[in-house]
């Protein structure tokens, strides 16, 4: 097992991927095990389902003119990010296990960058949808034009995501500071992973604040309206809103908490965190959020479900009843 140079802070860009894996004690398998095959098989299955589900959402938004409004464009952007996440995860599955040792550092960085970009874009899109819904409730304007501000928001999501993907390979890695090497992603800086985890946690807290304010406003308006009318639909609206909010935040917590905890523990404890034991499970959970998103945001929309049935009927070559 190689040991670090006499100076832990010496920049040596000739070190290969295997050096960093051995340095942090992360095993690169030389032969395929049953566990590897099962993990890759399940991973690729998730990728296919994620890709198909999000392609359906994007096609539905494109073909149905009733969806040609800002909130649906943001949902389409999130579907594109989740589709990208599925493809990035498939690339990871096809370059893992014994294949890892064949990767150059540049290929390894690209593999990680694709995951970083897609997951950051997915989380950013979740936040954008929360912001748009908040704005809709405040202004009481359900449909509006695609303003320059919204276009800038979409561009900003992808710009930040690409930046987060490029930072580790350019300015924030452990090639010049071996003490800072992550055990989960050996060439990545532990401080960068803690920063990335913290950024996602901050995003979640902002979403909680947004949806909490939405719920308070809608509840207040519903109570006010109920005092002046006998319409029971207002209380049903609040109940439906609460269900959607609970599903959105609950899915984020379930899918992202394991991975964020692992990254934080890795950054704080290093090898003592035993993060590698749960790494692949946590990544699969984060990827599953890209599958849950279209279910929550699309399938709870009656018009979206109708469009899905129409698309499937077209693919099957028969008319919708």
Automatic annotation (TrEMBL):
Record's keyword annotation contains Transcription regulation: no
| Residue span(s) of domain G-protein coupled receptors family 1 profile | 53-297
Provide the topology term for how it sits in the membrane: Multi-pass membrane protein
Q: Does the keyword Cell membrane apply?
A: yes
Give one Pfam family, short name only: 7tm_1
Give the domain of life: Eukaryota
- InterPro entries linked: GPCR_Rhodpsn, GPCR_Rhodpsn_7TM, LPA_rcpt, LPA_rcpt_EDG2
Primary place of residence? membrane
Localization, UniProt: Cell membrane; Cell surface; Endosome
Identify its protein family. Answer: Belongs to the G-protein coupled receptor 1 family.
The protein's name in its UniProt record: Lysophosphatidic acid receptor 2
């Amino acid at each position: 097992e190689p040991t670090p140079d006499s100076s832990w802070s010496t920049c040596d860009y000739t070190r290969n991927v295997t050096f960093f894996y051995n340095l942090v004690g992360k095993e690169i398998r030389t032969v395929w095990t049953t566990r590897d095959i099962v993990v890759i098989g399940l991973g690729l299955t998730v990728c296919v389902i994620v890709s198909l589900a999000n392609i359906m959402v994007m096609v539905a938004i494109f073909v149905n003119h009733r969806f040609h409004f800002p909130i649906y464009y943001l949902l389409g952007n999130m579907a594109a990010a989740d589709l990208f996440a599925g493809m990035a995860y498939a690339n990871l599955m096809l370059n893992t296990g014994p294949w890892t040792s064949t990767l150059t550092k540049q290929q390894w960085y690209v593999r990680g960058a694709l995951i970083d970009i897609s997951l950051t874009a997915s989380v950013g899109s979740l936040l954008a949808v929360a912001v748009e819904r908040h704005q809709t409730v405040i202004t009481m304007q359900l449909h509006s034009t695609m303003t320059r501000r919204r276009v800038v928001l979409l561009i900003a999501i992808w710009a930040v995501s690409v930046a987060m993907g490029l930072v580790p390979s350019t300015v924030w890695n452990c090639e010049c500071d071996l003490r800072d090497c992550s055990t989960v992603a050996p060439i990545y800086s532990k401080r960068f992973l803690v920063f990335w985890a913290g950024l996602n946690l901050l995003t979640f807290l902002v979403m909680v604040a947004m949806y909490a304010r939405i719920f308070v406003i809608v509840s207040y308006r519903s109570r006010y309206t109920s005092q002046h009318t006998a319409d029971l639909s207002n209380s049903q609206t609040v109940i439906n809103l609460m269900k959607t909010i609970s599903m959105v935040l609950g899915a984020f917590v379930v899918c992202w908490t394991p991975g964020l905890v692992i990254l934080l523990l890795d950054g704080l404890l290093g090898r003592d965190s035993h993060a590698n034991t749960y790494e692949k499970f946590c990544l699969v959970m984060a990827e599953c959020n890209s599958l849950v998103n279209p279910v929550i945001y699309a399938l709870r929309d009656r018009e979206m479900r109708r469009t899905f049935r129409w698309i499937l009927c077209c693919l099957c070559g028969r008319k919708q009843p």
